[in-house]
Amino acid sequence: MRIAMIGSGYVGLVSGACFADFGHDVHCVDKAADKIEALNAGRIPIYEPGLEELVERNAKAGRLVFSTDIPRAVAEADVVFIAVGTPSRRGDGHADLSYVYSAAREIAASVTGFTVVVTKSTVPVGTGDEVDRIIAETNPKADVTVVSNPEFLREGAAIDDFKRPDRIVVGIENERARPVMEEVYRPLYLNKAPLIFTDRRTSELIKYAANAFLAMKITFINEIADLCEQVGANVQEVAGGIGLDNRIGGKFLHAGPGYGGSCFPKDTLALVKTAQDAGAPIRLIETTVAVNDQRKRLMARKVVAACGGEVRGKTVAILGLTFKPNTDDMRDAPSLAIVQALVDLGAKVKAYDPEGMEHAKGMLPPGVTFADGPYTAAEGADALAIVTEWNQFRALDFRRLKEIMKAPVLIDFRNIYKREEVARHGFTYAGVGRPKDG
Ligand code: NAD
After folding, report:
1. Do 45 and 163 lie in a common domain?
2. Residue 353, marked binder
3. Which of the two ends of the chain, N or C, has the fewest CB atoms closer than 10 A to its terminal CB?
4. Is there a single domain that holds both residue 402 and residue 320?
């Protein structure tokens, strides 16, 4: 299959490289000339484990090319994927579909022969209908069918997720698309990954329902964690105790500082707006959004309490800025709200993140300083807060930390340490939902 990938960000680049690895001919395009220039020079513009090797191997084999030439990529393709961003629209929280629609117009102008246009971006119900309408309006002669194929990969484990998905969802309105999509995903299909065909609107909604459910599950355990702190229970044991029930499942039950990232915050909000517009408001998700928004900033209180009720003039070292480990993605990371709140309260913040600092520099308030490692961040600090559980923060040398910090205080927003172990080195410890804990 000849595939054009419009948008070479986290999703477009990973999907494009994986499709090439399946043996398809993939042309990844992007409006951002610097991204394409980097890719053509063998540099990967994002941090994603395993991606560099995958891109290099497939580019060398001639199955994966990069350019800014959208007309050519589209004209040569049997299947065109739209993988552009769908951020929250400023002001009202609806998904901003301007990138999707502009890609649709560009596709319409260059398409030749029968072409399947696939929306891989996360888009609200009905977007496929609009993409269809735009293409027909721009080029009435275009022989195109529009398909929805939402992406479920997680940053940090994206390649594995793409190649070993729990399911592949494909929403079609025209049976001509079915054999084409089966061919695109044949290697996964042969590997018994369930390929689910639905109508287009259902497929679009599956993506939002999945993300909203996961965001709700995280928010649920976060509220249980708050309750644990008040009543002297341990949230990790509660999560273990309920997670063993197959109807609940143990995943996404880790209490923490609130969900963030490039998907959950914007997708939950967009679903809330879609549902309100449709006259079927989803109150559970409205509440999830509100609870999570407040939570991130409120987490600064944990640091204040651990510092004895005041952070003004004190130095707080922050370990981990990205919304989760193994990515450089800073979009809607909880660290942004926590650091801002600490700065508002008069703290000096020194931060370190293995991959996210470059992006973080433009997003954190002025005055925040950056260190080149966990120990330089901790030097002279009154408290150390682990916000993202990168592997390199899982075995910190507390003896060394005790020597270099001004005060031995650890706030562990990801519950990666046991209080006892940290206390042995003379540290005061605060986790999430573990008031007495082990
Ligand atoms: P991104 O911002 O990393 O990448 C989008 C890319 O599209 C950018 O490089 C941008 O320059 C390019 N672009 C925009 N308009 C274009 C156009 N007209 N022509 C060519 N290129 C264009 O975004 P992302 O994280 O890859 O997300 C893309 C979509 O996938 C979103 O809808 C997102 O919700 C969804 N998604 C993301 C993830 C994730 O983990 N990041 C997971 C599943 C789904």
Report:
1. yes
2. no
3. C
4. yes
